[in-house]
Each structure stands twice: as C-alpha cells, then as structure tokens.
Fold these 4 entries.
Entry 1:
Amino acid sequence: MDEQTPQNAASQPESTPATTSSTSHGQGGHTGGHGGKSDAEEHKWYGVISYVWILCLIPLFAVKKSPFAQHHAKQGLVLLLTSIVVNIASWYLPYMLASTVSSLGGLAIFILAVMGIINAWQGKMWEMPVLGDLAKKLKF
C-alpha cells in the first residue's frame, strides 16, 4: 500500500492535503487560483483557530463568505463566552463549589475546544454538544 500512495500523489497533486496547504500557507483565503479546493480545505486553518479563545474573532470577521469558517467561528465564540461566564460565576460561589465549577467547567471547555480543532482540521462541520445549538442562533 505504501508503494501506491506516492504514485497516486504524483498523478493527482491537488488532492493531497500536504501539497495544497504548503502552497497556500493559510494566507489569502479569497484567492480563486485554487480551483478544486472545497470550502473546508481552503479555510481549514480558520476553523482550527476558531477554538483558540479570542482568535475566534478572526474567521468570524475575515471570511464571512465561508460557511465552514463561520460555523466553527460561531462555535468558538460560544465556547469563549461560556468560559468567561464559568469563570465569573466561580468568583461568586463559595470556595469549594467555585473550585469544582471552575475545574470541571474548564476541563469541559478544553475538551470541546480540542474536539473542535480536530474536527475542523479534518474538514468536518461538527456540532458541539449543548453549545452547538446556541452557535447556530448567532447571526452576523
């Protein structure tokens, strides 16, 4: 099987992710010269950074015409707002309850962010459990 992979890559260079991502370097998501690339392939990095806290604002405003980037950016924004609410709420709770809420909330947010990054990297329009419905309601 290893012998077939280089032959396939040589005969169809635009289908290999390494070839297409190394030529675009994540810059200029609006270039039309990448013909056969899907929205997910062209805006993969925007989807990935959507789950890195405040960086969700970059794809939210930079690539408004990409359904893939907007989907992940909105989910990243909901995740960001949720993490802020969890942290603020923990300030007003008694110490033991606050540390539990902060720890479990932080862990859940981290897990959702990692799952979002993985799914965005794979080009999937993954919907977060619970918070994904909130993200769908956001209109920009």
Entry 2:
Amino acid sequence: MVNIRVWAPKAMHAMRPDLVFFNSQFIIQNSYFISVMQIRPFQPSDLDTLYRIDQECFPPGISYSRNELTGFIGRRGAKTWVALANERIVGFVIVDREPQGVGHIVTIDVVGGMRGKGVGKALMKLVEEWAQQEALRMIYLETAENNHSAQTFYSALGYGKVKEIPEYYSNGLAAWVMVKRFQRR
C-alpha cells in the first residue's frame, strides 16, 4: 500500500470531518496538515515499537511487560492492528475473541503527539467492524478509574460502564469495565 501525503492549511477544510475513510486508508486531519494513515495487521518486527509505545502510554503497574504483550498478541483468537502515519507506527490495538461471542480489547495505545487526531477512533472502528463480521454480541475493555479522558473517549463511541473492579491493576488502581453491545444481523 502506498502512503500519500497531502499538505493543506486547515482553513481550506471548513466542513472537515475528523476522519475520512478512503478504501483501506484513513485521512487524519489536524490543525496543520492532512496526512494519510494506514492500518495493517501486526508483524513480528513491530513488537519492540509496540512495547515502547505501551510504556509511553501507561504508567508502571498499568503498562504491559514485553512478555505480556507477546502473550496477548499470540493468543489464538487475538487480532492486533497497527496504525501508521508517515510510515511510522503511531498506535495499535489488541483485541481477543472470547467464548459466547464476546470480544475483549486488551489495549489500545496511541502515541502522545497523535492523540485526538482520529487514530484511536479509526482503530476502534476497525475492531468494531471485525467484531460485527465475527458476529460478536459485545466488546468490553477495562480502563483505569482515574483515566477520565479514556472513559470519555469510550463513552462517545457508545461504551458504557458496567462494573468497577477494585485493585485491578498491579499498582492497586481500580478499573472500570466498559461494554458496547451489538445488534444481531
């Protein structure tokens, strides 16, 4: 797949959506430029970068070890997708298919400079499309009780809080389980 970069001032895009889907690419707009992002399946050579991003995104006790990430990615029902912008990995998501038609988002990580620019939304959209293709009933995830920006992000995508789990993370923080249910087709 070819990366295409289109540079334009924001003022030229008065009716801009945050995210435009074009074939298998996503166009991200921010205040300075428009850039094409690709999302592709995980490749083993991505592991070091994904580990580094996870360490950047989450504090100790919430971030995963390299072995944990490897284990999640390698699960039989797991899918991992990687978002690239300007040929650099800018985010990723790991989702696991569980019994009874349930999907579990293990982690979604976006590098700091790309947050709020549609990367997370594009990854979540891809996960939800996969879940519906797989005829899953619902997807759930956990987020730290004090991660209000993540809770707001997931709520805006239709996820609701269903349960608080005390001391979920190794650093003692509680987590909220958030769920999105899908209509059967």
Entry 3:
Amino acid sequence: MSRRVRHDLLVADAIRAVAWRGGLPTDRQQLWACCVKAGRLGSVELVEIGALNELVGHPREGFQRAVREDASVVLFIRTGPGGGTLSRIERARAARFAAVGVLLGVRVLDYLAVGRWGLESARESGCFAGLRGKAGTALRALVEGFRLPCGDERRPRVRPRQRAEALTA
C-alpha cells in the first residue's frame, strides 16, 4: 500500500472518529489530536475548545497525549462552525505544531481544518515545507519565524554601522 493511500485512510478514520465523538459540526472551534501507533489510529482526544473564530492553545497540550502514549505520529483536526479553510494564523500554528513535533520526535501527519463545507490540509498547502526531520531548521523556525507583526509594531532594521554612528554622534 502506498504512503499516500495510508495517509488518506488514516485521515478518513480520524475524521470518522471525531464525528462519532460529537466533534462535527459544532458552534465553537475544537482541536482534536489523533495518535497513530504502529500504523493504526489509536486514541482520539479533544485537546481544546475555543471561541467562535479562534483557538488559543499551546502545542504542549496537543502533544501531551501523544508523548504519554508513545505515539510515533499525530494528526491534528480543527473543527468549527464555518467552512474548512485555514487562516494565516492557523497556517503559522500548523507550522509551529510541525516544528515542535520534529523536536519531540513525533511526526505530525497533518493539520486539517474541517468545516461544514469541506476541509483543507496544511500539509498540502505547503505549511510543513522545509521541516522534514531537521531539528535545527525546526528550532530556528520556532525562534524566528512565528512572530506575526501586528499593525505598525515593526521596527526598522538598523545596520551595525548606522548604530555605531548614532552612538558616537
């Protein structure tokens, strides 16, 4: 069986398990962690219940069950009242989950946004590009890449020579 077919079967089983537990559709956003052990879907746990349009949890809550159960792979499913699309903030969050998974040694199979009108995969959107098994790249992405600028909070970049001239003047 090809890797793509196994991925699709695991995703279908996970979505079915989330729906069976009452996760689809809801009036608020929910984040589910589906642990995969030895190629089979293991536990499915509700990690967080958010507001109407956002989740505010930390990756440690998502990986807590996976680490406890010694799962090799975890799949995250975000359900919500709207359509199944990933916002810019959710794409950054999915990449952060993937980077934390690389550091912990737990591979993130996918981060799915499931809604009333369909689903969207973070892996197929390219959110996990460049993080394949590289702990240094993942750590650098965690430290540098996930600061989202809000409004005019960006400071202009000052070069060392300009800084030295400003100090001596």
Entry 4:
Amino acid sequence: MVVVHEVGDLGFEDGLVGVRYAHAALAEHTFGAGRGAKRLVLVAVGTGIGLGCRGCLETKSTAPALEREANRVARENPGTVLGRVLAGSAAERVSVSDVKAAADAGVDSARGLLAEAGRWLGTGLATFAATFSPDVIVLGGGMAEMGPALVGAAIEAFEDTGMPYVKRGVRVVPAALGNAAAMNGAVRGLPR
C-alpha cells in the first residue's frame, strides 16, 4: 500500500512505501484516475509481502489469500467448476487467473470469492480514509484488475463501513493506468 499525502506539492515524505508505488501514485494523480486530487491514497493490492497477521487485510484480500480460499473451496467441492480446474491443473492449484476466468464466465462461487476479498478490502479502505482524509482512493495492483466482482464489493463495503463524515467526498476508483503507472510516474518525475 502506498499513501501520497498532499499530492499537489509532490511531498512524498508523508507515508510513502517504495519508489515504484510512488511513481504509480504520481502517474495516477497526473494522468490517471486520481487526476486533480488534493490528497490521494493509492492502494496497490497484489501478492502482499508475507507479513499478514490473522484477520489483517493482507490475509484476506491479496492474491495469495484469494488462491488459498479458492483452493479450499475447490478441494471441498470437487464437482464444481473450481474443483474441476483443480483436478485438471498441472500445477495442482487454482490460480487467481482461474478464479477471474470462472467469475467472468458467471461462476457464482468464483464471484463469491472475489466479492469476499473485495469486502475485506473495502473495510480497509474505510480505515485508510479515516486515517489519511483523501479525496481519492485509487485501487491498483493485480487484484484491482479482477473486475467488478471485487472492485464493486470493495466500494460497497467502503460505503457500508466508512464513517459518514469521513467517506463523504471520497471517491474510490480503480487505477486507470495499470502496469504502466509506475513508468509514467517515473517519466513525470524527471527534471525538465
């Protein structure tokens, strides 16, 4: 996760993690989904860093968490689409890509897995909003590319769990620039 606080002055010292994400946040602010924001929070949700404690956001809404849940569901329900994916997998696991493909094909269990990860993410976004008072929260990383089942659930959970006076005026939006964001931000940050 990256926080860029007071983006307008390009003051990245207010809680930034990682140059790559600093560049991505700068690009989303300059060219993408956070264009014109005074305060932007970029939440990059992907593989996590492996330090999640029980119940924390990383253990519930990252790619490894989704895969863990998908494989549990597949093992417990071998006759389902995800169960058949697991049985036919050379890697002997259901991947995040498998879950997305199944969700895109309308498989309810896959949509449910994405929605559950999204609900956890949205609850975390409500906490970020209360902590950092952004006007825009940009969802980036591979998990944000899982589509409406996850992103929609995250936005709904944000609306349901966020404090009314905090969430008012906060837009939660998917990143517009995808994997190109870091490179675009790096170029934007070059001296002229």
